[in-house]
Fold this protein.
Amino acid sequence: MSFQKQLQKLRKEKGLSQEKLAEMIGISRQAVAKWEVGQSYPDIARLILLSELFKVSIDKLVNDYDENCRLYIEENKQEYKNEDIIQFLCKAKKYININESVEVKDSKFSGYDMQFSEGNLKYISKYHGKKQFIGEELLLRDDSPIWGMNYNGRIIGEVFSEGFLKEALALVPKEYPYRGPMVYQNGQYKYHCIVNGELEWFQGYEEIFFDDIKIYECNFHGGYIK
């Protein structure tokens, strides 16, 4: 089922008019109407609000993966700027998620550091916490920071698999080189990621489900450093 049909179905099941739904999530009725006829699509912040309001996962809201993924990519597709940065980010993220030996414990602040270098580019990733965590990523050119990302997330299910998360993150796509692919599934585990914006300035949200139960979620945002 497409997003617009899913939204109409959930809204009517809850007995809400377009006006009431719009009021509850802080937008205009016209915006809801456009969503329901497929003329526009909500950003990540609105998708999260809709997910919480209807008590369904974002995964369920955008259930027609093939259709929605194609639409999202085509509408946001641009000529890749700074191709070397994008390629390096993808290479660095794949490397640190495949090679466990790069993760070094920071005894001073009880955190974890990971690094990857190639030529004049250097990628640094740091995070603190395990079940509830916060982290940052930094890209340097000639030892000067040029791009960064912050994230915070939490594990909310006992069957969470760090191995599956790293597996998904190692598949970081060139179209949006921040976390994992828009959709990835292995067995009962399913990863889903939505990004709003471009490399210069972006925000996003990722989640993992075991069957239909959400067991992990993470928010991230970042952009160029000028």
User: Anything to note?
Assistant: Residues 65-80 have pLDDT under 50 and may be disordered. The first helix runs from residue 3 to 13. The domain at 3-76 is CATH 1.10.260.40 (434 Repressor (Amino-terminal Domain)).
